[in-house]
Amino acid sequence: MTEDNPETKPWRDPIVADVRKVREALFAAAGHDVHEFCRRLREREAASEHPVIRARNRPKAEPCHPTSCR
């Protein structure tokens, strides 16, 4: 059995919940097809006037050598 004790329930962030809800709606609108979902996102990015920063534009970190990473 589970109790409805607020101290034992995990905290639920309402902002994260809203982001996940919107993401699921967008994914459903794309027919749950990841390629269509990404195509639609790229289309929205292109139409937006906001700059888009992608991870591949960041400088790559140097790989850590096993003897020097401690």
Give a brief description:
Helices cover about 45% and strands about 0% of the residues. With about 70 residues, the chain is an all-alpha fold.
Provide structural commentary.
- The chain has a domain of 44 residues.
- It is built from two helices and no strands.
- The termini are far apart.
Number of strands: 0
Q: Separation of termini?
A: 44 Å
- β-strand percent reads under 5%
What is the structural class?
Answer: mainly alpha
Provide a count of the helices: 2
- Topology pattern, helix = H, strand = E: HH
* Model regions low in confidence, pLDDT < 50 over at least 5 residues: none
| Apparent shape | flat
Q: Summarize model confidence as the mean pLDDT.
A: 82
Most strands sheet: none
Give helix % range.
40-55%
Write the layout of secondary structure elements.
Elements: H1 14-29, H2 34-47
Question: Can you tag this structure with a few keywords?
Answer:
70 residues, mainly alpha, 2 helices
